[in-house]
Amino acid sequence: MPVDVLAEERRVHEDQAMILRVAVVDPLPMFRHGMMAVITAAGYGAEEIDDAVSWAAVPERRIVVLTVQTLADWTELDAICRGSAGNGVIAVLDRPEPAAYVRALRAGAVAAIPRESPPEALRAVLNAAAAGQSLIPTDALRGLTEPESDTDADRSPSPDEVAWLRQLARGDSVAEVAGRSGYSERMMFRLLRELYARLGKRNRTEALIHAQERGWL
């Protein structure tokens, strides 16, 4: 076989080895496949995976694009970042509030992006991550660098209230939380409603997602 053919084959294998592998984790197949098409068009290797934590733990340069909508998603984000062997996570936020950006970045994500972003925004964030950089909105950057405001401090739950939220997040009933706290079930419902209102949330689900974003759970 001619030397130039061998050299060309070697170059092709090297180029394939250099392609950054990007896993997409999203509950909707159509949305997931759309992101994979954008990623592939940008020159990266897009994949669907079953276990993002194990996939990211491989000591090879990889990026996970993870949609974060529920408490379980935030837990998965934390787990990926803790065991990712230096690989990156881009959080796709269903609720792109500054606090959600800050929560994702503090957990270890290299970037975050709203779920309704156009394809070019995803490409820009992915290209930056591949280059070892991060595109961060100004509000999120400010949230990372500024101390907590007095208003936020006033709305933060007490240690007891954090304990209630943690118990609810793990699946305990209001009756069980009330029993451990020494309140009647009726009183606990009232205290929790007051807590949700103080946090600016309409119900338990919104309050728990907010608590997870804030790092209270």
Automatic annotation (TrEMBL):
Residues 21-130 form the Response regulatory domain. SUPFAM superfamilies: C-terminal effector domain of the bipartite response regulators (SSF46894), CheY-like (SSF52172). Residues 139-159 are annotated as: Disordered. Keywords: DNA-binding. The keyword Hydrolase does not apply. It comes from the Bacteria. InterPro entries: CheY-like_superfamily, Sig_transdc_resp-reg_C-effctor, Sig_transdc_resp-reg_receiver, WalR-like. Transmembrane segments: none annotated. This is Response regulatory domain-containing protein. It comes from Actinoplanes sichuanensis.
